[in-house]
């Protein structure tokens, strides 16, 4: 045995006997590489950040793409449902915002349950899978908007949460040094799914109706997700959690000014974030473009999120999180007030969709950087997954509120046809709200300059 090996063994013996939460970065690296069995024997674990970690990441990509990609593609259902459920047209947007909103809002609850009960994590994946299938099939038999809200909205969100949120807990186990990049890849996969899903759903909707579209997507979901189920598993064995005693949650940062400034900015950004994805297809048809053009615009938003998520994830690994937030805020404001304003011209519509996807779509990737900032501000035990779930909840609040609020803005648009360009299409108030919330969502950067956060 060489000197390096002996040194590693001595270091490891110190790590294994030290209380959780007192580890140095070197000790964290070692504890990530080894596990102690019940008889005291130390054995190796799969490597973090490489090897089997990439199989986990591939599975997480599939989970993200299909679980989130479907509700994020709701914009293709919006004009179809508006036409076929005209009596309840004002409630249709609530179907999409309910699904995405509840998926986000429920994150802290499910994360807490699964964090405190590690043995439920893997079963949760399979239960959620079954609930999603039931929700999609149930929605295909719906006879009213309220039934669609209950199935495609509420039930889908419950299943999606059970199915997806174990990913966040496993992410902390499989990735350490490359966690920001891994989270960016996961976020980007939602955009990748959103490129294909709108076109596929739009084609089936136009040719066979929404019932066949939902049943077809159910089959696609099962076929794509089933192989990924086998690799969606923890890196640490369940006995690891049992050996370390009762599971604890570090929540002291909920009293931190830093946390609430960053959370407040995220909630405000979430108020406007979903509006283009929901209404852009209807907007395109309102200004005289084809249904395919509207679907293409939604697909471009989702595709551009791939670039945005990877770029912002990379940025947050190397810069303070508020830098990433500022980039997202400025880019979104320019996209909305310059390019959406002139989106009565088809090229401008597509440029807007791309820029909005990059900058607004990249905002959620900053959440892993928020976790890093919180840990550096006196809460070293703060877990990335819990931070992300709390910020998901905040964004979900924005999504739920934005549904009825956006319907009111469209119904009571102050400009209607009296204003120029996109402001006179009946969607001017939506445009204004999206731009303002994006601007205010960048407040965290200025808070740092004012020494309100560090």
TrEMBL record:
Coiled coil: none
PROSITE patterns, A to Z: MFS
GO cellular component, one term: membrane
Keyword check for Membrane: yes
GO molecular function, one term: transmembrane transporter activity
Keywords in alphabetical order: Membrane, Transmembrane, Transmembrane helix
SUPFAM superfamilies on file: MFS general substrate transporter
Residues covered by the Major facilitator superfamily (MFS) profile domain: 258-454
TM region(s), chain numbering: 53-72, 92-113, 125-142, 148-169, 181-201, 213-232, 258-284, 296-316, 323-343, 349-370, 382-401, 421-447
Subcellular location, record wording: Membrane
Membrane topology: Multi-pass membrane protein
PANTHER family: MFS MONOCARBOXYLATE TRANSPORTER, MONOCARBOXYLATE TRANSPORTER
Similarity comment: family membership: Belongs to the major facilitator superfamily. Monocarboxylate porter (TC 2.A.1.13) family.
Name by which UniProt lists this protein: MFS general substrate transporter
Organism annotation: Aureobasidium pullulans
């Amino acid at each position: 045995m060489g000197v390096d090996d002996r040194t590693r063994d001595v270091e490891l013996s110190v790590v294994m006997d030290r209380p959780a939460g007192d580890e140095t970065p070197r000790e964290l690296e070692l504890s990530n590489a080894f596990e102690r069995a019940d008889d005291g024997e130390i054995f190796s674990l799969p490597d973090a950040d490489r090897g089997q970690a990439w199989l986990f990441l591939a599975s997480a990509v599939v989970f993200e793409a299909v679980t989130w990609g479907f509700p994020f593609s709701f914009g293709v259902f919006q004009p179809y449902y508006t036409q076929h459920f005209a009596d309840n047209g004002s409630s249709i947007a609530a179907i999409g915002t309910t699904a995405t909103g509840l998926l986000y809002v429920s994150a802290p609850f499910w994360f807490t349950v699964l964090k405190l009960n590690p043995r439920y994590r893997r079963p949760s994946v399979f239960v959620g899978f079954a609930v999603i299938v039931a929700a999609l099939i149930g929605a295909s038999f719906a006879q009213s908007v309220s039934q669609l809200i209950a199935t495609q909205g509420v039930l889908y969100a419950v299943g999606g949460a059970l199915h997806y949120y174990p990913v966040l807990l496993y992410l902390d186990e499989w990735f350490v040094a490359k966690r920001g990049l891994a989270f960016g890849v996961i976020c980007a996969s939602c955009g990748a799914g959103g490129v294909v899903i709108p076109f596929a759903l739009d084609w089936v909707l136009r040719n066979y109706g929404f019932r066949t579209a939902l049943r077809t997507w159910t089959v696609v979901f099962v076929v794509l997700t089933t192989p990924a189920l086998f690799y969606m598993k923890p890196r640490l064995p369940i006995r690891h959690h049992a050996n370390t005693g009762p599971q604890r949650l570090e929540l002291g940062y909920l009293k931190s000014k830093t946390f609430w400034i960053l959370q407040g900015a995220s909630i405000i950004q979430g108020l406007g974030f979903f509006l283009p994805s929901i209404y852009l297809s209807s907007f395109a048809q309102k200004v005289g473009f084809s249904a395919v053009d509207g679907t293409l615009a939604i697909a471009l938003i989702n595709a551009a999120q791939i670039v945005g998520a990877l770029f912002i994830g990379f940025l947050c690994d190397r810069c303070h999180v508020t830098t990433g937030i500022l980039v997202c805020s400025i880019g979104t404001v320019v996209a909305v007030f310059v390019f959406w304003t002139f989106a009565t011209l088809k090229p401008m519509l597509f440029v807007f969709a791309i820029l909005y996807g990059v900058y607004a779509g990249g905002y959620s990737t900053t959440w892993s950087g928020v976790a890093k900032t919180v840990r550096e501000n006196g809460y070293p035990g703060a877990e990335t997954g819990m931070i992300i779930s709390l910020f998901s909840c905040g964004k979900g609040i924005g999504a739920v509120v934005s549904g009825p609020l956006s319907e009111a803005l469209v119904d009571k648009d102050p400009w209607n046809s009296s204003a120029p360009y996109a402001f006179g299409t009946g969607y001017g108030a939506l445009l204004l709200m999206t731009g303002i919330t994006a601007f205010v969502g960048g407040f965290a950067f200025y808070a740092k300059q004012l020494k309100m956060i560090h």
